[in-house]
Every structure is written in C-alpha cells, then in structure tokens.
Write a structure and sequence with these properties.
This protein is mainly β and about 475 residues long. It folds into three domains: about 60 residues; about 170 residues, Sandwich (Immunoglobulin-like), CATH 2.60.40.680; about 210 residues, no CATH class. The chain is about 10% helix and about 40% strand. The protein has two helices and 34 strands. The strands form seven sheets. Strands 2, 4, 7, 8, 10, 11 and 13 form a seven-stranded mixed β-sheet that branches. Strands 17, 19, 20, 21, 24, 27 and 28 form a seven-stranded antiparallel β-sheet that branches. A hairpin with a 4-residue loop joins strand 7 and strand 8. Helix 1 packs antiparallel against helix 2.
C-alpha cells in the first residue's frame, strides 16, 4: 500500500516540478523578450576616393585619399584594392626606407597589414585595422592617401577604381569579423599637357569634365577662367546635365530620378553642393535599402533609399519626392498620413512633409544625404515631436499624442515651369519631426503560455487516471 501511495505521490511531485519549471521559464523568457533592444537596420560603411575628379597637368603630382564614411558604425579594418592605368598614372613611393612602393597610411587604422603598389600592372593593395582596442573608429576618416604622378595626356578621364574581383575584393570589416562594406565611389582624373590650356574630356566611368561652362551665350562672360564640371550620377537618371562651379554651386536646374522612377531630387540653380570635407560635390549615388529598419507597428514603411555620398550637404535644402500607388497602400492607411523620414542611426525621424494626392507624391526638404523612407501612419501612437529645422534653423520641441491620424505637413511646394524653383508656404497644421516609439510586443509569449496550459491539463489527467490514494 505504501509503495502505491509513494508512486502516486512521486507522480504528483514530478508533475508539479515540471509545471513549476515551465512557468519559471515562461517568466524568464517574458522578461528577456520584453526588455530586448529593438532590432536596428543593417548598416554599411561607404568608401570613396577624394577628390572624386580632378584635372592635373602632366608631370605634376596629386593626392587621392581613401575615405571611409561609417556614421556611428565602428570600423575594425579595411582592405582596399585599387586599379589604375599605369600608362597614365604612377604611384609615388612615400617610404624610401622600405622596399617596394608604399602609400601613406592614415592615422585612424593604426595596424598596417599590407601596403604595396605596382606601377607595372596598375595595382594598389592596402589593408589596415585596429587590434585589441576597447573602441574602434567611426564617422568620416581617411584610411590612407595615394600620391599619383600624371604621366601622359588623356583624351578621356582616366579612372582609379576599387576592385571587387574574387581575389582582390575591397572590404570593410566590423566587430566580430562582420563584413559591412557599402557603396564604393571611384575617381576619374583628367591629365593634360603643357600645350593644352582648355582640356575637354568626356567619360562614362564617373565624371564628364570641361574647362568652363556658361549658361549664357557669347564670349564666356563672367565664367571665364572658372573650372566647372558636370555632376556625375550612379543609380539615377537626370533631366539635364547638372553643371557645378569650382565652389560647388549648381549652374542650372536638374531633377535626378531613381531607376525605379519612384524617388527624385530637385536641385535648383544656385544650390551649393558640398561633400563632408566641404569640397564641391561631383557625384550623387543612390540605392534601395535591402533591409531597412521597420517602423513601429502603426507606422508602415513603404519604400526606402540610401543617397550618397554620406555627409553631402545642400544649401539651400533641396526637395526629395517619393511617389506612391494608392492601390498598394494597406486598408486603413490614408494618403494624408504619408510622410518622409530619415534614418538617424537608431530609428526613423519624420520630416516636414507634404502629400500631393493629385500627383500621388510626398515631398520633403533635405539639407544632407542619409537613408530616407516613405512611411504611412495607420493608427494612434505617442510621438516625440520636434519641428524640423529644415532650411530655417528654427526648432521647437514637444510631445504630441495623436488619435487616428498623424500630425501632417506644414509646407506646400510649387514648381515653376521655367526653372523648376521650389517655394514653400505655411499650411494650417503644425508640422513635426516624428520619432516613432516602438512598443515592446512579444506574441511568442502567448504560444509558450498555451503550451504550459496544455502540459498542465495532461498532468492533471495523468494524476486522475491513477485514482485516489488507497487507504490502509
């Protein structure tokens, strides 16, 4: 009798222990999932040659920097493999104490793994990183500097390009060995002889360069002696070639459109376009974001693009337009609740936007390059709001609770038929820069609880099938 009773007691004890353990696991998982940090977008580091284009006299030397732009992302190492035409350019050795040809290492990535140039085959191999550090470099910095000598005149600009071949792959490494390589911007350089005073070159590689450009007719006028060039684009088509002065000021108006036709940049005449190093901007690139950070559950991300080079600025601000198809919007999402946001490194921050329901396009002014997205608000949420500084610099802050619709735009944009100049006029409602608060939800918890309940029922059935404990 005691044996049977003990068996029954052991079953009850075992069942109780199993259920207690599972409940403890559920509580632990709830805490872990509930407090987990939000998932962020995959970040990448852009590499570019600076300057992107330059005109050099044969026999002269000039410097080209390998520049990294990582934002807040930390860089552990860079493998830069470049190719150039050895009949046009030669790398100048910067370290006579070592054999071979060396380029100048940067100050940021202090451990140089390889540093060599080959003027016979037109190769540069450079690898450097930081070992055993508590923190790693981020932001914009120079990985290395190449000094070239111009050897021969070119009828078309000669290119210096990052290699992406299987055996010589340009790569940026992050923590734990992750590959975080982003866009690669090559350089093109026009070489002219002493006898050539006004070189005119055309290239499809990166840039078309001319000695001068004048939007007016006759005699050269005030632009005589200037060194204007044509802005190059990657991943964009343009309504007209955009001519840039030596100070980075656009000489005419042009609209640049992404290859999918959904996003466009309107750059009016007189806009100053500069790189992060405050030099004239010579190329604009874009690509769709493959894995953009999702907005909160009640803010739907519709389309996202990354414009580069990172850190480029515009004064005054230019207009970014992203189109939409009402048929593609989910049920409950109103066209008036669409807005453009930029990625600030941790999340999407809304911009002062306007919706043109007739043209089915959303417009916003931007003063710098980043990743931008078209987002639609579907339900109520709490929004931390800051009025976008835009081109005025004035800011106000506050917290806005919305019900059903998002606070909408405060500007409308009119495009003139002659020069496509964009103007703005205040609208009725206050405009906000929206930082979306992501609620912490975990539907996995409900499944775990359901499993625990099922196990508890099974345990209860097992106990009952054993019957009552026999009496002595």
């Amino acid at each position: 009798m005691n044996i049977i009773g003990n068996k029954h007691g052991n079953i009850k004890t075992l069942t109780t222990l199993i259920i207690g353990t599972l409940l403890t696991a559920v509580i632990a998982l709830s805490v872990l999932i509930g407090t987990a940090a939000p998932i962020t977008a995959e970040s990448t580091v852009s590499l570019s040659l600076a300057p992107v284009e330059q005109t050099v006299k044969v026999g002269d030397t000039f410097d080209v920097a390998i520049q990294a732009e990582s934002g807040s992302l930390e860089v552990v190492g860079i493998d830069a493999y470049l190719e150039f035409d050895p009949s046009k350019l030669a790398v100048v050795d910067m370290n006579s104490t070592k054999s071979g040809i060396q380029i100048t290492a940067g100050d940021t990535l202090t451990t140089v793994i390889q540093n060599s140039a080959d003027n016979t085959n037109g190769y540069i191999n450079y690898s450097a990183g930081v070992l055993g550090a508590d923190s790693y470099p981020s932001g914009t910095f120079t990985a290395a500097t190449i000094k070239f000598e111009a050897l021969a005149e070119t009828s078309t600009a000669t290119a210096v390009e990052f290699s992406t071949s299987a055996k010589r792959t340009t790569m940026v490494s992050g923590e734990s060995g992750s590959v975080i390589t982003g866009s690669l911007t090559n350089g093109v350089y026009t070489l002219y002889s002493e006898a050539t005073t006004t070189p005119t070159t055309t290239t499809t590689v990166t840039t078309t360069t001319t000695s001068s450009h004048s939007s007016g007719g006759g005699g050269g006028g005030g632009s005589s002696g200037s060194s204007d060039f044509t802005l190059s684009t990657s991943g964009l088509s343009t309504t007209a070639s955009l001519h840039i002065s030596s100070k980075g000021v656009s000489q005419n108006t042009a609209t640049l459109t992404t290859t999918d036709g959904r996003a466009s940049l309107n750059i009016p005449s007189g806009t100053t376009l500069l790189t992060s190093a405050s030099s004239p901007l010579s190329i604009i690139s874009t690509q769709s974001m493959a894995s953009p950070l999702a907005a909160s559950n009640d803010n739907l991300l519709i389309a996202a693009y990354t414009f580069g080079p990172s850190g480029a600025t515009f004064n005054p601000a230019i207009v970014l337009s992203i189109s939409y198809n009402p048929a593609d919007l989910p049920e409950g999402l109103l066209e008036t609740n669409l807005y453009i946001a930029y990625y600030d490194g941790t999340g999407w921050t809304g911009l002062d936007s306007t919706v043109d329901a007739t043209a089915r396009v959303v417009n916003a002014r931007i003063s710098h390059f980043s990743s931008y997205a078209l987002i639609g608000k579907t339900t109520a949420s709490e929004i931390s709001a800051t009025t976008a500084a835009g081109t005025t610099g004035a800011t106000t802050a506050g917290t806005i609770a919305t019900s059903g619709t998002a606070s909408q735009t405060a500007s409308t944009y009119a495009q003139a038929t002659t020069d496509q100049t964009i103007t703005s006029t205040p609208a009725k409602t206050a405009t906000t820069t929206q930082t979306i608060v992501e609620p912490k939800r975990s539907p996995v918890i409900f499944w775990i609880i359901a499993i625990v309940v099922i196990l508890a029922i099974i345990g209860s059935i097992l106990i009952r099938r054993k019957g009552p404990t026999p009496k002595e």
